[in-house]
Structure prediction request, 79 residues.
Amino acid sequence: MNLQSKKTFASINYEKCHPNGCNPDKGLCPAVPACEHKVIKQLDGAFEQPMIFQDMCMGCWDCIEACPLGAIETKHVGA
Ligand code: SF4
Ligand code: SF4
Prediction:
C-alpha cells in the first residue's frame, strides 16, 4: 500500500469531543453516519468518544461539517 501521498486527514480533538453534548438523547456521534467511507467509529458504544481510522480517511471533511462542537480538525503530515 502506498500512503506517501497521504498528507491530510481528519483528527478528533478529544478535549472538545463530548458525545453527550452533541447528541444528549442517544449519545451517538453524528459524524459517524456522515462519513460515507465509514472510517469513524464509536468502538466503545454510545456516549463514548469516536475514533478515526486515519489511514483510510479520504479527506472529504464531511465529518467536520457534521460535528456541532467543532471537535474534528484537519491534520497535516509531511511537507
Ligand atoms: S466528534 Fe463531534 S459529533 Fe462526534 S461525538 Fe465528538 S463532539 Fe460529537
Ligand atoms: S474527512 Fe471524510 S473520510 Fe475522513 S473521517 Fe471525515 S468524513 Fe470520513
Q: What stands out?
A: The chain has a mean pLDDT of 93. The helical segments are 19-22, 31-34, 62-66. Strands lie at 8-12, 40-41, 51-52, 72-76. The longest helix spans residues 62-66.
